[in-house]
Amino acid sequence: MRPDELERRLQERLDALGPAPRAELLHVLMLPDFERADRIGEFWSHPESRTFAELLIDLEEDKAARGGRVRVAQGDGAEVARPHGEPAI
Q1: pTM of the model
Q2: CA distances from residue 65 to 46, 54, 69, 70, 80 in whole angstroms, order as listed
Q3: In a 10 Å sphere around its CB, with 0-12 CB exposed, 13-18 middle and 19+ buried, how is residue 29 labelled?
Q4: To 10 degrees, what angle do helices 50-61 and 33-44 make?
Q5: Contacts of 45 (CB under 8 A, 6+ apart)
Q6: Per-residue b/e over 77-86, b at no fewer than 16 CB within 10 Å?
Q7: pLDDT in tens, 7-50
Q8: Neighbours of 73 (CB within 10 A)
Q9: What is the CA 57 to chain-centroid distance, rounded?
Q10: What is the largest CA-CA distance in the chain?
């Protein structure tokens, strides 16, 4: 699958989130690495939140999207702080 297709699919998944899940996504993405991993594990351990965990895992695995994921999660295109330890792009 081409990178632009992956990006489109990721954007569709993010667009489908409501305000509360989008806020939680933003919160989790801003956590330091180990705390973020623990929180993703908590979501994964509950069947009702496993799809949300899979989205977070996909964002973790897509290093190309990593720098812009917080802006995307915020949804308004405004510049926001990057997750702990993230370099500026």
Answers
A1: 0.66
A2: 26, 15, 6, 9, 15
A3: buried
A4: 150
A5: none
A6: eeeeebbeee
A7: 788 788 888 888 888 889 989 988 998 999 999 999 999 999 99
A8: 22
A9: 8
A10: 35
